[in-house]
Amino acid sequence: AYGLMQFNDMSKISKVVDNSMVERTAQWLMSRRDGKGGFLRNPQALDSYGRADQDITNAYIVYALAEAGRRDIQKELDEAAKSALESNDPYVQALVANALYCFQDFNRGDELLKKFLGKQDASGFWCGTRHSITRSEGISLKLETTSLVCMAIMKSKKPDLNALTKGIKFIVASRSGNGGFGATQSTILCLKALTQYSQFARRTESPGTIVISVNGKVVARKKYEAGEREVIVIDSLERFLKDGASEIGVAFEDTKNALPYSLSVSYNTWQPSTSELCKVKLETAISVEKAKVGQTVRISTVLTNKTNTGLPMTIAVLGLPAGVSAQPWQLKELQEKKIVDFYEVTPSTVIFYFRQMKPEEIRTINLDCKAEVPGFYTAPSSRAYLYYTNEYKAWTSIKPVKVEM
Predict the structure, then answer these.
(1) 8 A C-beta contact, residue 86 and residue 141
(2) Is residue 263 included in any domain, yes or no?
(3) Per-residue pLDDT tens over the stretch 23-36
(4) Which of 31, 26, 19, 18 minimizes the C-alpha distance to 2?
(5) Which of the ends of the chain has fewer CB neighbours closer than 10 A, N or C?
(6) If you average pLDDT over residues 285-313, what whole number do you get?
């Protein structure tokens, strides 16, 4: 469903999209209709903790098909609208409201909009009550819901500009220094909302001055001109920071409209703090602190679901000392034996993917690495987290290892 919507968006700006592929995707989705206003699931996924609830799945597919221009889903739309009107979940309601507006069904779209518009937090966001289609929680769920609500507001005939402005400001303020907005699905929806808003609220840009302060003291100023398109960067602020907490202020002078901004902070630490909200626990250990070249060094990883509920896709990133390397045959064996579902190797880590974790489940991975290069090595810290709630991480590290000839 997401792929259909994505390629439909791409086809509006590029001719590289294969229209027959898009049509096959749409036809496959249509073939999954159950005749009752919903969509069939893959039987293999019925016991999966990574799957979204049925009403969320149906609402998302209807939304994707509607956004892609399909108009032969009236029965599914009616059923999704009925379910959404009975729901108290702003995420589901926003999905269906967008679909209704795509069908020019403003009466039911406005009815849904009224149900969730008043649930906006003072900080500007809306949040689903359960999870999203990707089982997102935390900041990603807030961003996905807020983006969908903002897009619905902009589709309505009488948009609530105050609520919309607050929602857009929350999205902009949530942008990370590297350009992302939470996890992958939330990033895409945020970009869709911001793109739509840029067309919705065009206005003439004016010149102004950005003023940066640290702990109440002005440390930098930068002027910009009307119509400026390049990114305005003010860097090297670290020299003004002191030990402990610091407050950085951003102000605008000689202009009526403030610009959206983000603060990017990069730092190094041996082991970051584990989030109390992370639903998994990670433990790692190394079998020896000294090894000869060619010797096997076992690195053990224990990943635990701390909750009594199932978890969706979970990631464990194991940091490896530079002088040792994972053995490809063993990684392949781990996947074949279904100890892990997928893996990925980088120069300093092995990344393990788990489609789901059962309640209180414990996964143990013993990796027999090969000592190859003499030296004294400290591995980067290891971490684990839910793929779609990646702001909450568990961190741990292993002892250094010395490799000798």
Answers:
(1) no
(2) no
(3) 899 899 999 999 99
(4) 26
(5) C
(6) 96
Alpha-helical segments (H) within 156-255: 161-173, 184-200
Residue 275 belongs to a domain: no
* pLDDT mean over 240-262: 88
- Which of 167, 200, 233 terminates a domain? The answer is 200
Where are the strands (E) in 187-322, listed by range?
Answer: 208-214, 217-224, 248-253, 280-286, 290-292, 296-305, 314-319
Q: Indicate if the pLDDT at residue 386 is higher than 60.
A: yes
User: How much is the pLDDT for 295?
Assistant: 94
List, edge to edge, every strand of the sheet that includes 349-354.
342-345, 349-354, 314-319, 382-386, 389-396
Residue 287, both tokens: 């079998």
Q: How many domains, in total, are found in the chain?
A: 3
pLDDT tens for 327-336 read 999 999 999 9
Domain co-membership, 298 together with 397: yes
- Which pTM value belongs to this model? 0.74
DSSP at 239: G
Q: Residues 6 or more apart from 225 whose CB is under 8 A from it? A: 207
Contact present, 351 and 279 (Cβ < 8 Å): no
* Nearest Cα to Cα of residue 149 among 129, 135, 128, 134: 128
Residue 75 token pair: 């029965």
pLDDT range class, residue 227, cuts 50, 70, 90: confident
Confidence check: pLDDT of 369 > 60:
yes
Here the tokens at position 89 are 């979940």
Is the same domain home to 230 and 347?
no
Domain membership of residue 366 as a residue range: 280-404
Residues 357 and 331 in one domain: yes
Please tell me the distance from the alpha carbon of residue 183 to that of residue 396, in angstroms, as a whole number: 22
pLDDT at 47 over 50: no
DSSP structure class, residue 311:
B
Percentage of the chain with pLDDT > 70?
Answer: 97
Q: Is residue 187 domain-shared with residue 243, that is, in the same domain?
A: no
Closest CA to 177 of 262, 267, 272: 262
Looking at the structure, tell me whether residues 324 and 179 fall in a common domain. Answer: no
User: Are residues 29 and 166 located together in one domain of the fold?
Assistant: yes
Contact 132, 185 (CB under 8 A): yes
- Both tokens assigned to 112: 């849904």
